[in-house]
Recover the amino acids of this structure.
């Protein structure tokens, strides 16, 4: 009986976090992602499962350094999957294994998670006949390595750090991350959205700001039988059949037909223009939903207010999960880190939303990213403490003995390259040495004699 109690407790403790994770990362998803990996990669110590799960845990675990987070992630993996082959022990080995992992494997897992999102949140997936999807982009700062500066380039001020651009799709009613696309810091989020059109669900209504004002984008969405609700600025030139004063305009049918499009022979787009309250000049929205009953003014106002949940997603990603700056030193590492961390955010929001909506009793509620992350970290710590065996717990004294300061003779300068600064660095000049004058020698001799007399 003494040996059966801990086994029952460990089995019961494993239910919850891992079971909730399996609701979105199903065995079928792992099997599909495994088929993408080459056969040589399948037989190594770093299997697909042993790479992806620690990669997700690096975004969820707490720690001051990546090495500390990796130790926690590896301990959790060993405690949760005892029968699997143990992964490597060092963080450098994990980095090398991650660089060999094909990016399509991570994208297959993300596509499987999207299917599970629509399955679990089908009761609140649509909003009055539409699936509201917000689109926005943001930059992620990267380290100043030579490869990243050469491959990614500069997107900000002169001598700025290289950046990676992320364009994200968010389900506005629940705040869940739906999809994303990566590019250089100089990439266009408008072009990214064009590539993301096949990823949009059926009956999707894309809500975007004035940065997505483009004829070809609107035409591609309409050809794909998708809807949009985009804000307009003074750069937009619209045409109406009858002249109407702007101060009295509320809504009506318009034609969007830029001059370059007319010269190329493409047809005009017949759209609907809405003017809502907001700001000094009002909120001008353009949509291809022509029927007023399908998209009322109140619905349009509500949907555009929800668009700020895109900003909330990036705030949670950068501030809560500490992804303001990536840690990869190469392009391979940066892209895999971004893909894995975005998948981690998607799973974190999915687990939290799934839990709070089961207890919401029909009310539309959203989860707190900080609260979900705190609960996940507590569960990870508890599972590690309960499920690790005696062989896996190393002696504390032995670990202290291995914590040695690196004592090597430096044969190269501390800086390998000149980093940009506010001012160019200048070494201190040598001191100035002068010969004592007879008067100064007499004063020094007088001071020494006075001290001896005292």
């Amino acid at each position: 009986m003494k040996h059966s109690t801990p086994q029952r407790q460990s089995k019961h403790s494993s239910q919850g976090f891992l079971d909730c994770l399996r609701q979105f990362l199903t065995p079928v998803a792992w099997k599909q992602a495994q088929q993408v990996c080459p056969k040589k990669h399948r037989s190594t110590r770093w299997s697909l499962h042993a790479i992806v799960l620690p990669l997700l845990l690096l975004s969820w675990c707490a720690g001051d350094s990546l090495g500390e987070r990796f130790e926690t992630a590896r301990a959790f993996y060993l405690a949760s999957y005892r029968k699997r082959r143990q992964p490597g022990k060092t963080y450098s080995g994990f980095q090398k294994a991650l660089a060999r992992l094909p990016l399509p494997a991570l994208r297959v897992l993300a596509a499987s998670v999207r299917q599970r999102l629509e399955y679990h949140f089908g009761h609140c997936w649509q909003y009055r006949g539409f699936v509201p999807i917000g689109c926005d982009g943001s930059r992620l700062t990267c380290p100043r390595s030579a490869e990243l500066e050469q491959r990614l380039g500069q997107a900000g001020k002169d001598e700025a750090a290289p950046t990676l651009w992320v364009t994200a799709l968010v389900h506005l009613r629940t705040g869940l991350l739906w999809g994303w696309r990566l590019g250089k810091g100089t990439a266009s989020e408008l072009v990214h959205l064009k590539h993301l059109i096949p990823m949009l669900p059926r009956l999707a209504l894309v809500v975007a700001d004035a940065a997505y004002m483009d004829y070809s984008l609107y035409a591609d969405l309409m050809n794909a039988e998708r809807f949009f609700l985009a804000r307009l600025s003074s750069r937009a030139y619209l045409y109406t059949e009858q002249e109407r004063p702007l101060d009295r305009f509320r809504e009506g049918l318009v034609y969007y037909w830029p001059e370059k499009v007319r010269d190329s022979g493409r047809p005009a787009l017949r759209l609907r223009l809405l003017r809502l309250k907001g700001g000094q000049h009002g909120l001008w929205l353009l949509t291809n939903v022509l029927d007023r009953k399908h998209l009322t003014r109140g619905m349009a106002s509500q949907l555009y207010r929800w668009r700020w949940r895109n900003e909330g997603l990036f705030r949670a990603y950068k501030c809560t999960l500490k992804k303001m700056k990536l840690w990869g030193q190469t392009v391979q590492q940066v892209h895999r880190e971004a893909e894995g961390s975005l998948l981690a955010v998607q799973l974190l929001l999915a687990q939290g939303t799934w839990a709070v909506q089961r207890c919401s009793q029909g009310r539309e509620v959203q989860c707190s990213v900080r609260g979900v992350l705190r609960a996940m970290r507590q569960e990870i710590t508890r599972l590690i403490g309960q499920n690790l065996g005696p062989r896996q717990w190393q002696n504390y004294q032995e670990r202290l003995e291995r914590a040695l300061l690196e004592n090597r003779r430096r044969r190269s300068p501390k800086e390998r390259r000149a980093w940009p600064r506010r001012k160019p660095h200048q070494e201190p000049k040598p001191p100035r040495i002068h010969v004592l004058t007879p008067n100064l020698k007499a004063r020094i001799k007088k001071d020494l004699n006075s001290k001896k007399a005292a």
Summary: The first strand starts at residue 131 and ends at 141. The beta strands are 131-141, 163-171, 176-184, 204-208, 227-231, 238-239, 251-256, 269-276, 283-287. The chain has a mean pLDDT of 86.
